[in-house]
Amino acid sequence: MKASRSRIEKRYRSLLQKAVRRGDVELVFTTSSLLESLGSKEKNWYRSQTAIIAFEECWPLGTELIFNKKFHSKVAALIQVTRAAKARDATGLGYLAYALSQGDDTVYTGTDDDKAIKIVASAIRRPDDFWQWISWQKTTETEKTLLDNAARFKNVGLPHDKAVIQAAAYLAATGQFPAISEGQAPYPKFPYWVVFDIHTVEGRRVLRDIARDLHIPLSQLEWTYFYFEGALANGEIESKWWNRYCQWQFNKIDLAASEAHLLWTPAKAQMTEALALEGRQLKSELYRWKLANPEPIAALKRQVQLYIDHLDEIQRDQRHLF
To answer: Please, are residues 27 and 190 in contact by the beta-carbon 8 Å criterion?
Structure first.
């Protein structure tokens, strides 16, 4: 039986974000070109997801979300995120604020930093007031560019995605803007089995089975899988909010961060084996598509590089989104 179209798309979508995180530029180009070939639905998803991934994985690169109607303009933004060391403060702050907005006050630590979580949680509950406040802030040109882009994309994605974008706007408005550095080279072999996470049918099935077999709470296995594999990046800028969010998650599942590897090491061996076939099939699928479509991929690479090379020459106030 052939996999359904929606299951196929979810695999490619998961693959794209994992490739961005791990800095695998070639894989991002191939996956992007393949997604483009699937039709308008995937191209529309790619447009929104580019903004979400940029703010989640390297939020200061929200300044580079300068699109025209061409698909390659969105790929160019993702390629810049792929090449960069990751900066996840907006994700950490946004996720904590979203939890607070849902009534979970365990995000508090009794420190001065709690104030930022309260502000972003309030922004989630009263977004119009927040974006009006953002529009009043005096900022540098770079900060203003990010704030303008955040406002453009304020309604994309799921509620926690919107919280990340609001967190990025808050960080920029309050002058917390780190310098972006180049990421490390990607690992030689991309582990395709990590594509199958809780967002895929195959990943959920394997996680349930292994949690049962090893007598591990499912929540602990899901989080350690994400922490050690799903979120793995090709270099990270120090992100206090991301670190705080991760520590909060470890506390939520009652697992000491320093002992997490003791749970994950044996579980990883079983997950690698259980998902080996799915990983090989996905790798083979992508390889066959790449061999059959060299020109679209090569053309996309040329278009993206040309777009990046001339990005500063384009007048931002004359760009039309999409």
So the answer is: yes
